[in-house]
Write a structure and sequence with these properties.
Elements: H1 10-14, E1 17-27, E2 37-43, E3 63-66, H2 67-76, E4 81-85, H3 95-104, E5 108-113, E6 127-131, E7 156-161, H4 164-176, E8 184-189, H5 196-206, E9 211-212, H6 216-221
Parallel strand pairs: 2-4, 4-5, 5-6, 6-7, 7-8, 8-9
Antiparallel strand pairs: 1-2, 1-3
Length: about 230
């Protein structure tokens, strides 16, 4: 591992390296694999600035890791599930190769991505957890709608909702794009902005074909980094 965090130079840019904020073992707190012991590989950098972001510490800094060292660190933890997250992991082009290497090593791999970047090159063995940004996120204009046609039953779509207006917007998006026919659809309340029970009641009342979810890791460890 190269721990230098200096600006990118030509040698670094051409190497098989990624800038990493942290690699840690925890429980998967959301999506289809919630509850599984999971190694999280958090890449540094994100072009979006969602107003509710809870990982702004991953926007900058980080350390350069060789892909081989990332794989070795993941293997040390001895679990099957690996989640590549950020920031926005796909903002680093070499993330695509890392995902393939993780799949080749036999891991059950998921990718948490903002939905603002093309997902077509992601290895089909990866479960892509695609955010669709609502108006309440203040980044809805960054949604790359072409990604929807690429979704399969192996993937998942997530909406983080800040209030009733976001809920109605997301409900309309699910219907317009028939998202529930493509893959699992997840609705989450934005912490401190929407009461979980309120969102649950709306979903039940409308009989929406979506899964309500809360962030298990926040219930257990609040916003502690690396958990």
């Amino acid at each position: 591992m190269n721990t230098a965090s200096a600006p990118i130079d030509a040698a670094t840019a051409s190497a098989d390296r990624l800038r990493i904020t942290e690699i840690f073992l925890s429980l998967q707190g959301e999506a289809r694999d919630a509850g599984w012991p999971t190694v999280f590989v958090r890449l540094t950098g994100c072009p979006l600035r969602c107003q509710y972001c809870d990982t702004a510490y991953a926007f900058h800094g980080g350390e350069w890791w060789d892909v081989e060292d990332i794989l070795a660190e993941v293997a040390k933890h001895g679990v099957r599930h690996v989640c590549v997250t950020g920031g926005e992991p796909l903002s680093q082009k070499r993330c695509i190769g890392l995902l393939q290497r993780l799949c080749d090593a036999g891991y059950a791999v998921s990718l948490e991505t903002s939905g603002a970047i093309d997902i077509s090159a992601v290895d089909p063995r990866v479960s892509r957890v695609l955010d669709i940004k609502t108006p309440g996120s203040r980044e809805a204009e960054r949604n790359r709608w072409e990604n929807i046609d690429l979704l399969t039953a192996h993937d998942q779509v997530k909406f983080v909702l800040c209030g009733r207006a976001d809920y109605e917007w997301a409900r309309d998006m699910v219907a317009t794009h028939e998202l529930d026919r493509r893959c699992d659809v997840l609705f989450s309340p934005s912490k401190s902005e929407l009461a979980p029970r309120e969102l649950a009641d709306w979903i039940v009342a409308d009989r929406l074909p979506v899964k309500f979810q809360m962030q298990l890791h926040k219930l257990l460890w609040n916003d502690e980094p690396g958990r």
